[in-house]
Each structure stands twice: as structure tokens, then as C-alpha cells.
């Protein structure tokens, strides 16, 4: 079935980087984009950016410009999100979601990856 | 940009209807028909329940409906059921903004 499988829990120190993977299965990866969304503990959803599964074109939220890089590996149908210079307030669950089947909406979500930033 | 504005909480009894509003501006909700809604149960990933303001993905009950007027989108859940208790988030593709979320309690 159509699904997105994310990498596991990460614990990082302030200033470090984290790279989360999102492996797609059950659909043609290059036909859709991948959006990354995060959710701090007890808080709402925050859009981080989007990457095309077709050509790797990216669109990042201004808040994360310069600190985030989204990439894809079409050979393994996997998307990646790297966040650098981590701060304590980057502690959150990070989700990937498929965009495109339902235009401009996110119809399939990964299970989420918890990232804890603590000294 | 700030998040879209949603009430922090709403409640209703089983069988009743509730409406959750999502207010933005002409640069996001008011300027686009690409508004979607997500349901999130505790500890789970969000689930798409409405897209393009009022369309339902396959498998979503017709108890869930969406609409939009000017800068405000709305989600209505009719015939409330216990399993509808969750957080609900709106999203506007224009502006790439989520709402702050609304906690629905089924009394």
C-alpha cells in the first residue's frame, strides 16, 4: 500500500545537525512532491518546506532558509531533510507528507520522527 | 507570517454538529481555493479530511464538510461521534500556513 516510512528517534546537542529520511513505497515517487512539517511538543503544525520528487526543486519556509536542506534519492524513492545548527526549540516531531495526489494538500503522512535537542 | 486563526477548543455532544473556523487574510485563505483540513489524534500523524476547501478524500465520511467565505474557511462535523474527538488543523496552500489547531471534545 501507499506509505511513507521515516527514520527513528534522534537526540542531538545544540549546534549539531540532524538528517531524517522518508522512504516512499506503493506509488511512483517522481510523480509527487514531499512536504516536511514539524510539531513541537503540545504545539501545532508548522510547514517547513517542499521538494519535488521529479526534479528536486525546493521551496523552503523563510524561517528555515539557510539552515535546512531537503533532498531526494530517486533510486531509492527516499526523501531527506537535514536541519543544521540545532537549537533546543527545534525539539519536535518531524513529519514528511506526500503532496500532489490531492492538489496542494497532503494525503499520505509518515509516522513522524522525534528529534530532541538538549545539552 | 502568523498562523491562521482557529478557536483553541470546541465541544459537542454525540449526534450534534460543530463548526470550526479558520481565519486568515486575502493573501492566504481569501486568495485561494486550496484550503485543506487535517484530523490528528494524540500521538498519531495528521490525516487529510478535506482538500480544495470542500472536497473529501476517498474513505472520509460525508459527516465532514468544508466551506469558505472571504478570508475564513470552516469545517463542519455533523452527527458527532466519539472517535471524532481529536485536534483539527486547517492549511492554506497560499502562504503555506497552518492554523493553530482546534481541540474537539465530544461530551
Q: What is shown here, in short?
A:
The complex is a heterodimer of chains A (119) and B (107). By secondary structure, chain A is mostly beta strands.
Q: Count of helical segments of chain B? A: 0
- What is the terminal separation of chain B in angstroms? 35 Å
Largest interface: chains, residues each: A-B, 20 and 22 residues
Question: Overall pLDDT of chain A, averaged?
Answer: 96
What helical percentage do the residues of chain B reach?
A: under 10%
- Which residues of chain A form runs of ≥5 with pLDDT under 50? none
Shape of chain B: globular
Assembly type of the chains comes to heterodimer
Strand fraction of chain A equals over 45%
Structural class of chain B comes to: mainly beta
The N- to C-terminal Cα distance of chain A equals 40 Å
Write up what this structure looks like.
The complex is a heterodimer of chains A (119) and B (107). Chain A is built from no helices and eleven strands. In chain A, the strands form two sheets. In chain A, strands 2, 4, 5, 6, 9, 10 and 11 form a seven-stranded mixed sheet that branches. Chain A has a four-stranded antiparallel sheet with strand order 1-3-8-7, with no helix packed on it. By secondary structure, chain A is mainly β. Chain A has strands at residues 3-6, 10-12, 18-25, 33-39, 45-52, 58-60, 68-73, 78-83, 92-99, 106-109, 113-117. Helix content of chain A is 0%, strand content 52%. Chain A is globular. In chain B, the strands form two sheets. In chain B, strands 1, 3, 4, 7, 8 and 9 form a six-stranded mixed sheet that branches. Chain B has a three-stranded antiparallel sheet with strand order 2-6-5, with no helix packed on it. Chain B has no helices and nine strands. Chain B is globular, with a radius of gyration of 13 Å. Chain B has strands at 9-12, 18-23, 35-40, 47-50, 64-69, 72-77, 86-92, 97-98, 102-106. Chain B is mostly beta strands and 107 residues long.
Amino acid at each position: 500500500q501507499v506509505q511513507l516510512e521515516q527514520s527513528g528517534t534522534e537526540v542531538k546537542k545544540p549546534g549539531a545537525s540532524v538528517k531524517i529520511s522518508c522512504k516512499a513505497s506503493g506509488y511512483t515517487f517522481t510523480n509527487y512532491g514531499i512536504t516536511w512539517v514539524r510539531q513541537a511538543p503540545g504545539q501545532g503544525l508548522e510547514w517547513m518546506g517542499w521538494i519535488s520528487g521529479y526534479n528536486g526543486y525546493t521551496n523552503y519556509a523563510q524561517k528555515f532558509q539557510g539552515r535546512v536542506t531537503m533532498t531526494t534519492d530517486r533510486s531509492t524513492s527516499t526523501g531527506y531533510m537535514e536541519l543544521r545548527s540545532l537549537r533546543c526549540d527545534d525539539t519536535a516531531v518531524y513529519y514528511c507528507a506526500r503532496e500532489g495526489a490531492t492538489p496542494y494538500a497532503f494525503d499520505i503522512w509518515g509516522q513522524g520522527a522525534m528529534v530532541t535537542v538538549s545539552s | 507570517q502568523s498562523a491562521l486563526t482557529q478557536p483553541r477548543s470546541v465541544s459537542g455532544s454525540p449526534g450534534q454538529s460543530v463548526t470550526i473556523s479558520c481565519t486568515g487574510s486575502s493573501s492566504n485563505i481569501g486568495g485561494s481555493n486550496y484550503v485543506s483540513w487535517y484530523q490528528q489524534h494524540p500521538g498519531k500523524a495528521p490525516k487529510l479530511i478535506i482538500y480544495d476547501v470542500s472536497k473529501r478524500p476517498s474513505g472520509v465520511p460525508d459527516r465532514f464538510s468544508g466551506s469558505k467565505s472571504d478570508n475564513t474557511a470552516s469545517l463542519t462535523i455533523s452527527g458527532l461521534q466519539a472517535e471524532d474527538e481529536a485536534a483539527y488543523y486547517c492549511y492554506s496552500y497560499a502562504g503555506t500556513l497552518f492554523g493553530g489547531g482546534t481541540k474537539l471534545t465530544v461530551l
